[in-house]
Design brief:
By secondary structure, the protein is of the alpha/beta class. It has helices spanning about 5-15, 40-50, 80-90, 110-115, 130-135, 150-160, 205-210, 225-240, 255-265; strands at about 20-25, 55, 70, 95, 105, 140-145, 170-175, 180-185, 210-215, 220-225. The mean pLDDT is about 95.
């Protein structure tokens, strides 16, 4: 059974920057037995990042839509795991106001980091919290989940304008603030095609380029992504093949050759 101190030691071993910004996607069950359960995991993360910024996704895209358009910042539950649901309710945590792709943050600049997402009509706009992760040179931890759950990659696709990733039309959604204010947020959605189910294809490339490294938290395998390097690698790869994530086939030999040749020239 893992204790809080065990987890904090593993976070150091993973190289998580104590004074930086880290976003955590997670599967609590994958971590094995933890003394004190999910709250111990959140305590370990919060204490490790006490001088930085800890961010967890608090998405509601699974059930907030045109038929159920009302997102309540203080009470709409997340659809991305127990750690995210418990975290958003903790004292001092600030949640952004995007109706489908909100995040919650604790620590340095949490209020500023979460401000303004409701002004955008796409899930991962460059000016939103997802783009701010890149500005802050943040790390992304994938705890017991793989690249298919890395929402940031959706952001990269959006920023380089890969066609077919977003609906042309907007759904009329609303964000409700704790004080009763109701904000209209017309929103485009990710298309029905499961692009993210194919994000696994770049796993090896990200490791080879140093954009991602592996470790453990509890029993869970952890992927730690460097947002700056990840963005650079994927931007180049998507420029060469915008349809890279359109199917479940491994990267082609041509694509691997192109990428490694390009990297070698830069060195």
């Amino acid at each position: 059974m893992y204790t809080k101190e065990d987890l904090k030691r593993q976070l150091h071993e993973l190289g998580i920057d104590l004074k930086g910004t880290v976003l955590v996607h997670s599967s609590f069950k994958s971590m094995g037995e933890v003394e004190g359960g999910p709250d111990t995991v959140l305590d370990a993360l919060s204490e490790h990042m006490k001088d930085g910024l800890l961010v967890l996704p608090t998405h509601t895209w699974r059930y907030i839509n045109a038929d159920n358009p009302n997102f309540y910042v203080d009470s709409s539950p997340t659809n991305v795991g127990i750690l995210t649901e418990l975290f958003r309710q903790r004292e001092g945590v600030r949640r952004s106001w995007h109706p489908t792709h909100s995040v919650a943050a604790l620590g340095k600049d949490a209020t500023e980091f979460t401000r303004g997402d409701e002004q955008f009509d796409t899930p991962c706009a460059r000016g939103s919290a997802w783009g701010k992760l890149l500005d802050r040179k943040a790390q992304i931890m994938l705890v017991g989940v793989d690249l298919r759950r890395n929402t940031f990659i959706h952001g990269v696709e959006e920023w380089v304008d890969i066609p077919g990733r977003l609906t042309d039309s907007r759904e009329q959604l609303y964000t409700h603030l704790p004080d009763g204010t109701k904000i209209s947020v017309p929103s485009r959605r990710h298309t029905g095609v499961s692009w993210s189910e194919h994000f696994w294809k770049v796993d090896e490339v990200l490791q080879e380029t140093g954009a991602m490294h592996l470790g453990r938290l509890g029993d869970a395998e952890v992927r730690v992504c460097d947002t700056v390097k990840l963005t650079a690698v994927l931007t180049e790869m998507l420029a060469a093949d915008p349809e890279m994530f359109s199917d479940n086939e491994p990267l082609s030999d041509e694509m691997r050759y192109f990428f490694h040749e390009s990297t070698a020239q830069e060195e």
